[in-house]
From TrEMBL:
InterPro entries: Ald_DH/histidinol_DH, Ald_DH_C, Ald_DH_CS_CYS, Ald_DH_CS_GLU, Ald_DH_N, Aldehyde_DH_dom. PANTHER family: ALDEHYDE DEHYDROGENASE-RELATED. One of its GO terms (molecular function) is oxidoreductase activity, acting on the aldehyde or oxo group of donors, NAD or NADP as acceptor. This is Carnitine dehydratase. Residues 15-471 form the Aldehyde dehydrogenase domain. The lineage of its organism: Bacteria, Pseudomonadati, Pseudomonadota, Alphaproteobacteria, Hyphomicrobiales. Keywords: Oxidation, Oxidoreductase. Gene3D superfamilies: Aldehyde Dehydrogenase, Chain A, domain 1 (3.40.605.10), Aldehyde Dehydrogenase, Chain A, domain 2 (3.40.309.10). The active site is at E248.
Length: 487
């Protein structure tokens, strides 16, 4: 059985307690993970705090920080295959996706490496004579980064990259489900040469490790990705330390198809939008909103493509849909699909877990256009598509925005003016027009409403890890006049 360790203050170490990690393809435990509780969290935060305040890290120029990030990027690229295999083993996410995604993660580090010495303060044209006033941008402080189990290396990179570019230090809490890739990534942090304590990586359970970390008095900012209910707990925890928060939460994203769209292309994008990563994607286009006149045709194309998907072992390069990460997730999906069918939703395809080992669930399409189905409201985080239909643009928009979430959306039409009208009115942080599931380090990403706040990616994300200091410098040698008048 493979054993993993925490990375605290530049050293690899065991925790006082461990827990098993389960291989989702077999349901068997395959590795032993260290479990951080209060004591481990305390040491990790203290290490990050010390590294922020003294020693090498705060003395480095921004350019030197950038060089370390470039080194990390190269190491991620060189080790992408190995990390991808670990992520696939520990989370069930297919190797085709993890290998491509991790290779691209290197570009996120490169982007923030280049940005490190371009984070600028400003000089103010102040309304007083003999006074120079400027704003410095300083690191916000110790960052607690909490990530969910899907795409952990990616979700950590969009926090680590900008936080280090800004000069912060971090404690990263890997999810208790599938923490292996992040714990292994710590070896690359060490090899890149970051000073001890700048990046600390631990794992443990939410109620113990996550709570202790997010309420710790020395944490200044919490960068959280996960579900909305957990986010509420995290925000409550932040009432203790008054840390700022950025929240990347879930979604129930609309995928709108107008009759004039290229249906073949839209169907491919819909398959990517809901079945890639076995639907375990925050941006899953889980509500298909299709114009009534093409609904039958579109569903038959979609059904054919869904039934052709290759389900199999996640480490097999030809597999397209692997298992879900946990049995808990599969059981939840099964339960909600069952209730939806009982409520009158029509099963177009899928809907039943196969016999045998592993946490598998097939690509599933539910036609919910004539009923109120639980599958339409709840984020399922699995390969389940709920179908709704509309008669005109106004109804499409109403259905699209009929959710408390607002993370992503897809819009398929050849009508450019309509695309512009709709794009402005869709209540979501990302609108993809005639494409879906595209991301880049250059493009900010984040949600509206219950999908959270704050943006990851782009320049704005690095600024979120800074705070401004206003410096006033009097340039006159004359004595200060009347001390009882505010100047
Ligand atoms: P989750 O909310 O259950 O857990 C996320 C993390 O929070 C885990 O590391 C967990 O241990 C930790 N946690 C749990 N309770 C905590 C507490 N009280 N205090 C501090 N930390 C705590 O999420 P999950 O089930 O692992 O992942 C699925 C969710 O993540 C979905 O809702 C999905 O949409 C969302 N997600 C969002 C994005 C995005 O960028 N918007 C990306 C991926 C996943």
């Amino acid at each position: 059985m493979q054993r993993f360790q925490h990375y605290i203050d530049g050293r690899f170490e065991d925790a006082a307690q461990t827990f098993p990690s389960i291989d989702p393809a077999t349901g068997e435990s395959w590795a032993e993970m260290p479990e951080a509780r209060e004591a481990e969290v305390e040491r990790a935060v203290e290490a990050a705090h010390q590294a922020l305040r003294q020693g090498e890290w705060p003395a480095l120029t921004a350019t030197a920080r950038g060089k370390l990030l470039y080194r990390l990027a190269d190491l991620v690229a060189q080790n992408a295959g190995r990390l991808a295999e670990l992520e696939t083993r520990d989370t069930g996410k297919i190797i085709r996706e993890t290998s491509a995604q991790i290779a691209y993660v290197a570009d996120y580090y490169r982007y923030y490496a280049g940005l490190a010495d371009k984070i600028e303060g400003s000089y103010l044209a102040i309304d007083k004579p003999d006074m120079d006033v400027w704003l410095r941008r300083e690191p916000v402080g110790v960052v607690a980064a909490v990530v969910p189990w899907n795409s952990q290396l990616f979700l950590a990179a969009v926090k680590i990259g900008p936080a280090l570019a800004a000069g912060c230090t971090l404690v990263i809490k890997a999810s208790e489900d599938g923490p292996a890739p992040l714990l292994e990534f710590a070896r690359l942090v060490q090899e890149a040469g970051f000073p001890a304590g700048v990046v600390n990586i631990i794992t443990g359970f939410g109620a113990t490790c996550g709570a202790a970390l997010t309420r710790h008095p020395k944490v200044a900012h919490i960068a959280f990705t996960g579900g909305p209910q957990t986010a509420r707990n995290v925000v409550r925890n932040s009432a203790e330390n008054l840390a700022s928060t950025s929240l990347e939460l879930g979604g129930k994203s609309p995928f709108i198809v107008f009759a004039d769209a290229d249906l073949e292309s839209a169907a491919n994008a819909q398959v990517a939008g809901i079945f890639a990563a076995t639907g375990q994607s925050c941006v899953a286009g889980s509500r298909l909103i299709v114009e009534s006149s093409v609904k039958g045709r579109f569903l038959s194309i979609l059904k054919e493509k869904s039934e052709a998907v290759k389900i199999g072992a996640p480490l097999d390069m030809t597999t397209e849909v692997g298992p879900l990460c946990t049995a808990r997730q599969r059981d939840l999906i099964e339960e909600v699909v069952g209730r939806s069918v009982a409520a009158g939703a029509m099963l177009v395809t899928g809907g039943k877990s196969p016999d045998g080992v592993g946490f598998y669930y097939p690509p599933t399409i539910l036609d919910c256009s004539a009923v109120k189905s639980p599958s339409v409201e709840r984020e399922l985080f699995g390969p389940v598509l709920s179908v709704l239909s509309f008669e005109d643009e106004a109804e499409a928009l109403r259905l699209a925005n009929d959710t408390p979430f607002g993370l992503a959306s897809g819009l398929f039409t050849r009508d450019l003016t309509r695309a512009h009208r709709m794009m402005k009115r869709i209540h979501a942080g990302v609108v993809w027009v005639n494409t879906y599931r595209a991301v880049s380090p250059i493009a900010p990403f984040g949600g509206y409403g219950q999908s959270g706040h704050g943006r990851e990616g782009g320049l704005a994300a690095a600024l979120d890890f800074t705070r401004t200091k206003t410096v006033w410098l009097r340039t006159s040698d004359d004595p200060i006049p009347d001390p009882f008048v505010m100047r």
